[in-house]
Structures are given as C-alpha cells and as structure tokens.
C-alpha cells in the first residue's frame, strides 16, 4: 500500500503516543505537530457572528476560533454584529476577499440566505454555528456546529420541573432569534406547567431587571425564571432579589458571574453549549476541508451540547471560565 505523507505522519504519531511512561520512556508533553501545522496552512478564514463585541459568550467563541487558527497556522478574522443586514455585508466582504472558508451564526437565517448563497456559489465552504441549524443544510453549508435548542430546552424544562417549578417566565432578549423561541418551546414541552414569555432588550440590563421585577410582583404564581443569556441571568437574579420572590432561576450559557451565582445557590443550573467548541471546531473542519476535502457530520449537525453546570461541578468550570475557554 502506498503510504502518503499524511499516513506516515499519523503512523509516527501513533508510534510515539503508544509508549507510556511506565514502559521506561517519558510521555510527550503534547502530541507531535503534523508537518502541515508546523509549516502553517496559510488559509484565511472569516468568522462572522451575531454577537456584539465584548459579549462574554461570544468572546469565548472568538477565543476558540483564534486558538484553532494559531494551531493550524491559519489567519482567522472574527467580526460580530447583531444586525443581520450588517452580517450579510460582512459575508459579502469575506467572499470578495476570497477567503478559504466562512463560519457564520444564523440567528435570523432568512436574512442571511442570499449572502450565504453567494459564498457557496463562489465555492467557499461555509460552516454555520450556534443558531439556524434547521436551515444550514438547505443553504449549502458543509455542516452546523452547535446544540439542538429544542433538546436543550426540554432538558432545562425537566430540571426545572424536578425543582418544583410550575409557572415559568422565559425571558427572550433578542427579537427574531429563532433559537431563543425554540428554547422556550422545549422547556414548555417538559415542564408540565405554564410557560410565559417576556421580551426584553439585552442592551439595557437595568430595564431587564425592572421588567422581571415587575412581572414577579404582579404575578406571584411565577415560581421559576429561565434566562437565555448569562447577562440576562444576572439581571434576573437581581430582579428576584428586588421582588422578594422565591422563584428558582436557571439560565442558558456561562459567564464567570453565572458560575459564581451557581456556587452561591442563586442560580439552579446553566445549560452549557460549550461555545468554545463552536469557535474551535469549525476552523478545524474548514482546515481539514482545505487540506484534505474532509467533511464532518454526514449531513447532520455536530452537537456541542447541551451539558449542565450545577453546584456540583461549578468550581471546576470556574477555573476554565477564567481562562476564557468556558
């Protein structure tokens, strides 16, 4: 059988890692780099999300993408904008720059369909992340990396039901974001009680606290709050305190503040979609596609969650959150 350089590199890696320290040889501190990684792939990848700069969630996605780019010697540019029209413009710009691959989140898939179609038509591979999994394949993306929002919502509803919640306030912080509504619907399916939605603006957290406080004071049957964003979770925690409510609070996604609140017993749990992987994996997949025409997922999304962070594992996650990887 003809052994290509890639096969030889893999065989060499297996030969080294197959020796344990107990056999008299010291184990390597890190896996040996392939020749492609040593030389640098020279690829250019654009990551375009709907997350505003400085958002704690999207900063971790950015960290993952940039770490992968550094590992593979690829150039990674990250840009985030919550306006789908501006997101489309950024995709068009990446196409005009003839990048080797585009990573894009689709909170509003229909608004991005045309721009993504142009990228696909230009034979630029696209990996979608985070939101819009249902449209990813139809739009021509190589794969989708994220979590099933329906499944995650159902998991949250089950845990809230076990905690005794019978009437839940689901706080939606971005109008038109299909993934957020899917989370609320999923929770509604498994809670076995009432789920009421409250629309707020994530850019005005003081107003979020005020609106949640008012709702808890006006309807004391609400004994659970589900935030869909870590900043909203902190605002909701303050609202529960201000209202003198005993409502149980849970959230989607992590931040250092949320992990601290879980440790303090102020937040019951966080649904963790491991957003670092939503940055890291797409760059890995695109790099493999460029180098070896590999595709991942077989037409199905690559799930990064849901996982759950509770008081039992919050201390371990806290250390990782400080490092910017969770």
Automatic annotation (TrEMBL):
Signal sequence residues: 1-22
Instruction: List the InterPro entries.
Output: Bact_Solute-Bind_Prot2 (IPR050555), Peripla_BP_I (IPR028082), SBP_2_dom (IPR025997)
Q: Which domain of life is it from?
A: Bacteria
- Sorted alphabetically, which keywords does the UniProt record give? Signal
Under Pfam families, the record lists: Peripla_BP_4
Kindly give the SUPFAM superfamilies that the UniProt entry links to this protein.
Answer: Periplasmic binding protein-like I
What main location does UniProt list? Answer: other
- Localization of this protein: Cell envelope
Can you give the residue ranges of the Periplasmic binding protein domain? 45-286
> GO cellular component terms?
outer membrane-bounded periplasmic space
A single GO molecular function term of this UniProt record:
carbohydrate binding
Query: Mind telling me which CDD domains this protein's record contains?
Result: PBP1_ABC_sugar_binding-like (cd06312)
- Can you tell me which family this protein belongs to? Belongs to the bacterial solute-binding protein 2 family.
Q: What is this protein called?
A: Sugar ABC transporter substrate-binding protein
């Amino acid at each position: 059988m003809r052994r290509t350089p890639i096969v030889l590199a893999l065989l060499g890696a297996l030969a080294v890692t197959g020796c344990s320290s107990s056999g008299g040889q010291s184990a390597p501190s890190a896996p040996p780099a392939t020749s492609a990684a040593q030389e640098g792939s020279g690829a250019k990848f654009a990551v375009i999300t709907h997350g505003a700069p400085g958002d704690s969630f999207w900063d971790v996605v950015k960290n993952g993408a940039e770490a992968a780019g550094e590992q593979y010697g690829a150039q990674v540019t990250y840009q985030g904008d919550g306006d789908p029209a501006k997101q489309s413009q950024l995709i068009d710009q990446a196409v005009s720059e003839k990048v080797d691959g585009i990573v894009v989140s689709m909170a509003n898939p229909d608004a991005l369909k045309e721009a993504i179609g142009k990228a696909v038509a230009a034979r630029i591979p696209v990996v979608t992340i985070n939101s819009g999994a249902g449209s990813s394949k139809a739009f021509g993306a190589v794969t989708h990396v994220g979590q099933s929002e329906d499944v995650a919502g159902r998991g949250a509803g089950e845990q809230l039901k076990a905690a005794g919640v019978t009437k839940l306030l689901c706080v939606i912080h971005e109008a038109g974001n299909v993934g957020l509504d899917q989370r609320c619907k999923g929770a509604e399916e498994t809670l076995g009680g009432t789920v009421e939605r409250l629309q707020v603006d994530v850019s005005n957290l003081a107003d979020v606290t005020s609106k949640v406080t008012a709702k808890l004071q006006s309807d004391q049957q609400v004994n659970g709050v589900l935030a869909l964003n870590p900043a909203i979770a902190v605002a909701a925690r303050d609202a529960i305190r201000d209202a003198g409510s005993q409502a149980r609070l849970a959230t989607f996604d992590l931040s250092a503040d949320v992990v601290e609140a879980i440790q303090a017993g102020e937040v019951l749990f966080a649904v963790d979609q491991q957003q670092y992987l939503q940055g890291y994996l797409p760059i890995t997949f695109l790099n493999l596609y460029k180098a070896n025409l590999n595709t991942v997922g077989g037409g199905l999304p690559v799930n990064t969650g849901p996982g759950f962070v509770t008081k039992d594992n919050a201390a371990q996650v806290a250390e990782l959150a400080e490092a910017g990887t969770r």
